[in-house]
């Protein structure tokens, strides 16, 4: 490890004076609120550019105050509580969602130890031996806000959105947690500051690329963002779990969504992209890039790159079908994660013990890759066979009506006929009355 960057041991935390802790807490709160306002504006501008529109350009220069105007609009809207709602739970649910979103940033390292108002302190509120598990636990509690909000609304649309969200977030948290196991094996710690220090020479996103890819897919599903925004599917569930919410309660859900985007992006930066370390190893040109307040620039630059990735997906990909989305998580991401963990643990043990020849290990890995490649060319079922099985009810797949025996009907539909008391009358014709 470079001598310019001393590893931030856990013993450095817990010694700040009370006013330094208050300043750090307020700074995290202000940064997240301002980042949310900026991300909303940025998303609108980027998606507008993708769709050949102008985007917000009236409130402030380049429309920068559009997010603030939206916040004022939400605050001044009428606050409605449905008659069928459970009033207490209905009010608590958005508070739970927003509060947990803020708490997760307590263990995110923004930079190294710096001098703040004459006091030496790390640019991180706190740290603990199980900091990453703390983030996952708090994120799991945030699910309760969404589920309770959908249940307490007294609306079928909101209830279905809450159920979808709970199934989706639980499913993809499993894949996300498994993707992080490889990082723990390489870093030898669950502390966020120690994981960042362990990536001084090489980022884990490069040497643990499968874990990185699985985490990126899982974090999009975890935050209910397009193309995985099934709980908020407008064409099916109106607005999903927050259909019955308005005014500031809806604003809290809105705030929680964007802060969760920043949270998973910050966690990806911390665990896979070296955290606050300078990108592309430009610190070899000037060591001061990883000292003082310079690392704040690198950290937020990487976080904003992930935010842009979220926006890019929303403006590019259509929404998945729900059964396809759940199959992706349970049938692909989780099995691949389990296999990758076994491979990483094996390679890690061999690297530490040195008991097996690396050439033989590479040969075995190469043989396994050849087998996997051969399986990828295994002939798949034809569309005709799948349609025939679905028509016979043999597959139990996605419920679609069977195709007609002669294939799809082309041309005009057959006229409808209705039976009357005297005769059958064709639709679109007038029954005779016997009079001219």
Walk me through what this model shows.
With 436 residues, the protein is mainly alpha-helical. It has a domain at 77-374. The protein is built from 14 helices and four strands. It has helices spanning 18-50, 66-76, 87-103, 131-152, 156-187, 192-198, 204-207, 209-222, 234-237, 247-272, 294-314, 322-353, 358-376, 383-392; strands spanning 113-116, 119-122, 417-419, 424-426. A two-stranded antiparallel ribbon has the order 1-2. It has a two-stranded antiparallel ribbon with strand order 3-4. Strand 1 (113-116) and strand 2 form a beta hairpin. Helix 4 (131-152) packs antiparallel against helix 5 (156-187) and helix 5 packs parallel to helix 12 (322-353). The N and C termini lie far apart (103 Å). It is a multi-pass membrane protein. It catalyses: a quinone + NADH + 5 H(+)(in) = a quinol + NAD(+) + 4 H(+)(out). NDH-1 is composed of 14 different subunits. Subunits NuoA, H, J, K, L, M, N constitute the membrane sector of the complex. Keywords: Cell membrane, Membrane, NAD, Oxidoreductase, Quinone, Translocase, Transmembrane, Transmembrane helix, Ubiquinone.
From the structure above, extract its key features.
436 residues, mainly alpha, two-stranded antiparallel ribbon, two-stranded antiparallel sheet, 14 helices, 4 strands, 3% strand, globular, disordered N terminus, disordered C terminus, NADH dehydrogenase activity, EC 7.1.1.-, cell membrane
């Amino acid at each position: 490890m470079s001598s310019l960057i001393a590893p931030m041991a856990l013993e450095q935390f817990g010694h700040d004076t009370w006013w330094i802790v208050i300043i750090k807490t307020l700074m995290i709160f202000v940064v997240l609120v301002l980042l949310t306002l900026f991300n909303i504006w940025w998303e609108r501008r980027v998606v507008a550019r993708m769709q050949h529109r102008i985007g917000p350009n009236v409130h402030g220069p380049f429309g920068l105050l559009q997010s603030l105007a939206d916040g004022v609009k939400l605050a001044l809207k009428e606050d409605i509580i449905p008659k069928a709602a459970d009033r207490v739970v209905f009010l608590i649910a958005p508070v739970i969602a927003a509060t947990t979103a803020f708490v997760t940033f307590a263990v995110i390292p923004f930079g190294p130890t710096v001098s703040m108002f004459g006091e030496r302190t790390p640019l991180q509120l706190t740290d603990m031996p199980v900091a990453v598990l703390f983030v996952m636990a708090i994120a799991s509690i945030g699910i309760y806000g969404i589920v309770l909000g959908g249940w307490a609304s007294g609306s079928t649309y909101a209830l279905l959105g809450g159920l979808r969200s709970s199934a989706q977030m639980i499913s993809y948290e499993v894949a996300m947690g498994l993707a992080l196991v490889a990082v723990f094996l390489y870093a030898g710690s669950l502390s966020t500051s120690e994981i960042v220090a362990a990536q001084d020479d090489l980022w884990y996103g490069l040497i643990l690329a499968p874990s990185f890819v699985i985490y990126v897919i899982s974090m999009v599903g975890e935050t209910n963002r397009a193309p995985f925004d099934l709980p908020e599917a407008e064409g099916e569930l109106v607005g999903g779990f927050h259909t019955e919410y308005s005014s500031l309660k809806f604003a809290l859900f809105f705030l929680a969504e964007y802060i969760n985007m920043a949270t998973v992006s910050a966690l990806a930066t911390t665990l896979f992209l070296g955290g606050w370390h300078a990108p592309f190893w430009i610190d070899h040109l000037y060591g001061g890039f990883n000292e003082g307040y310079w690392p704040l620039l690198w950290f937020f630059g990487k976080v904003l790159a992930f935010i842009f990735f979220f926006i890019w997906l929303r403006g590019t990909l259509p929404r998945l079908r729900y059964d396809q989305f759940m199959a992706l998580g349970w049938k692909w991401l989780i099995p691949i994660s389990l296999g990758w963990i076994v491979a990483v643990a094996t390679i890690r043990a061999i690297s530490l013990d040195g008991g097996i020849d690396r050439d033989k290990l590479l040969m075995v890995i190469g043989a396994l890759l050849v087998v996997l490649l051969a399986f990828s060319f295994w002939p798949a079922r034809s569309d005709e066979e799948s349609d025939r099985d679905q028509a016979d009810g043999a597959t139990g797949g996605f419920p679609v009506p069977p195709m007609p025996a002669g294939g799809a009907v082309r041309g005009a539909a057959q006229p409808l006929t209705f039976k009357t008391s005297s005769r059958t009358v064709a639709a679109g014709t007038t029954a005779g009355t016997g009079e001219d």
